């Protein structure tokens, strides 16, 4: 049994000039995952941390108490080690520069959705934490700038998620494949349980909120009907699974194959999900596992961000399934 800590140190040896900062960041994330795991698993017992906080985030979405708790936990863990120069979160309008001497001299910035799918907590459905790490582009020794966060996804140095489900798992990549670690609360360690995850090239599961069907572009409507047609040669009709939690739907598709789609819609002209701390990290993981992520036309990782919280349509999962959606989007574009 190999622990996450042993794995990180072992892999650091692959980067001779590494000074351990990325290792330090991953250790902070490991701690954050343990703390959030602990409190999510008590959510039903201690009412002071479930339900909404009576506030809204930058997107105008109601913040759940655990959203804010997860965000504050992440911020404190990063500030304690100062291995990052800056931090951006779904729960905070602007990025945070760690403007101390150690912070200014740090090489990396991190972006996170501290608790994705949090509206599901009160009904005991799995939720997740998503993170994305870049090397800063502004000069070392100065406070970070917005430019450090608005980098295309192909420049990520690491990305991952924690899924707080029937078990808590941390899944991440540093650009050399994807590995999954399952948390053993009795020992307080994450153990390597899913080495070198490879997403099947095709699958039988599609995840989309079909209740919004009438609002979707024609290409998406045509693809949904394609999934439902009878065709044994291509294993159709597919199975529809939609948990309402990106991390959970994506994690299942990573292991079993499948596609998750949150397209543009008349009520979400640019989609609902955010490019920087949902689309990009999941796209990095998908491609590292042999899958693909697109906005329906372009590779997610090639998109040049313009705003910290910008939204993006997301088609992500098994490579052949994402490519099929791109064919439909191309064929029916403009309809
Ligand atoms: P809808 C959760 O709010 C989230 O960002 C994803 O985790 C999830 O897949 C999606 O939104 C659900 O959105 O509009 O289908 O309820």
UniProtKB/TrEMBL annotation:
- How does the cofactor attach, per the note? Binds 2 magnesium ions per subunit.
- The EC number on file is 3.1.3.11
From the UniProt record, which GO molecular function terms apply? fructose 1,6-bisphosphate 1-phosphatase activity; magnesium ion binding
The pathway to which it is assigned is: Carbohydrate biosynthesis; Calvin cycle
**Residues annotated as binding Mg(2+) 1:** 90, 113, 115
Q: NCBIfam families under this entry?
A: PRK09293.1-1
**Name of the protein in its database record:** Fructose-1,6-bisphosphatase class 1
């Amino acid at each position: 049994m190999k622990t996450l800590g042993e794995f990180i140190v072992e892999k650091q040896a692959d980067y001779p000039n590494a000074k351990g900062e990325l290792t330090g960041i991953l250790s902070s994330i490991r701690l954050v995952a343990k703390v959030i795991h602990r409190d999510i698993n008590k959510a039903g017992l201690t009412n002071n941390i479930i339900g909404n906080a009576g506030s809204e985030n930058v997107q105008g979405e109601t913040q759940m108490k655990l959203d804010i708790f997860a965000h504050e936990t992440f911020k404190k863990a990063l500030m304690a080690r100062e291995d990052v120069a800056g931090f951006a979160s779904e729960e905070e309008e602007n990025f945070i520069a760690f403007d101390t001497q150690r912070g200014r001299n740090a090489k990396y910035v991190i972006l996170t959705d501290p608790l994705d799918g949090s509206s599901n907590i009160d009904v005991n459905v799995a939720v997740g934490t998503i993170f994305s790490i870049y090397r800063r582009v502004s000069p070392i020794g100065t406070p970070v700038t917005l430019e450090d966060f608005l980098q295309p996804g192909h420049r990520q140095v690491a990305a991952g998620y924690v899924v707080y489900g029937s078990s808590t798992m941390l899944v991440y990549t540093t650009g050399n494949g994807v590995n999954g670690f399952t948390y053993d609360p009795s020992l307080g360690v994450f153990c390597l349980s899913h080495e070198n995850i490879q997403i099947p090239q095709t699958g039988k599961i599609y995840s989309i909120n079909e209740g919004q069907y009438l609002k979707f572009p024609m290409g998406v409507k045509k693809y949904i009907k394609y999934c439902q047609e009878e065709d044994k040669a291509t294993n159709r009709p597919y199975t529809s699974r939609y948990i309402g939690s990106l991390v959970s739907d994506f994690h299942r598709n990573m292991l079993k194959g499948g596609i998750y789609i949150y397209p543009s819609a008349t009520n979400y002209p640019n989609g609902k999900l955010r490019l920087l701390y949902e689309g990009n990290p999941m796209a990095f993981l998908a491609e590292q596992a042999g899958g693909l992520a697109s906005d329906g036309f372009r590779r997610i990782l090639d998109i040049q961000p313009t705003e910290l919280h910008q939204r993006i349509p997301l088609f992500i999962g098994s490579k052949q399934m994402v490519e099929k959606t791109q064919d439909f989007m191309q064929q029916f574009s403009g309809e």
